């Protein structure tokens, strides 16, 4: 069977603590069904040692783009959509690492076996918590995992988060709006609205670290919530709400799981998230795509 070619793309802003870990996890991948043709790192105006660290890794497939400008992630992803030269483009955040050596294979195998595949969303998993706040945030993800036999969150828009694979045809046809806050969800809903084939690869897992400071969590949560509201302008409220719909029975089980496992953390986080919801409704029209970096989740992932 002929191997498909794969490009890895990431937009990095001040990722000196994590970019090397991410790249090494990519380089270590087994390439049975695919071949990594290039690994493109676009620095979005990084002021730290991100570019220097990337260039220090001796792999001819790594390409660095550094124009010194801070344009925001949507512009950089659009840049990657135009630049990559493979059958498939895999986008991964610079502060994530691939959990297993066959993670990329699990993410891209659908493109081998189903030629109509346009988009594949990978799974994300939080690293073990080091703080009270991380424990509270991770508790929700663990609650979701405990219910995966009853309800597949991958069948909803919740699957589109920071680790996506695009066919060349789909990527070339896609243009993220300049001010979009959630490009991953925009890519997912665009594929659904066009009737394209998309999948959720539950066993293609990347690891990330949850925010460990209240300020960082508020910034991140507000951005995500505002990004969801913003999608109404592009696809309509009914379509977006349907994409994120979770049955009431599952919502209650999520609540009871979190209360049982970490009641204080759940209540604490719920109060913060109520504030984030209020803030996001006011901010959905004005949040800057060049938003404040979530510093506590950028600390070394390992």
Sum this structure up briefly.
This protein is α/β, with parallel strands linked by helices. The chain has a single domain (4-287), classed as Spore Coat Polysaccharide Biosynthesis Protein SpsA, Chain A. Helix content is 44%, strand content 19%.
Structural write-up:
This protein has an eight-stranded mixed beta sheet, with helices on both faces. The longest helix is centred in the last third of the chain and has 21 residues, at 263-283. The chain has one domain (4-287): Alpha-Beta Complex (Spore Coat Polysaccharide Biosynthesis Protein SpsA, Chain A). The protein has 302 residues and is of the alpha/beta class. Helix 5 (132-146) crosses helix 12 (263-283) and helix 11 crosses helix 12 (263-283). Helix 1 links the parallel strand 1 and strand 2. The mean pLDDT is 92. The protein is 44% helix and 19% strand. It has twelve helices and eight strands.
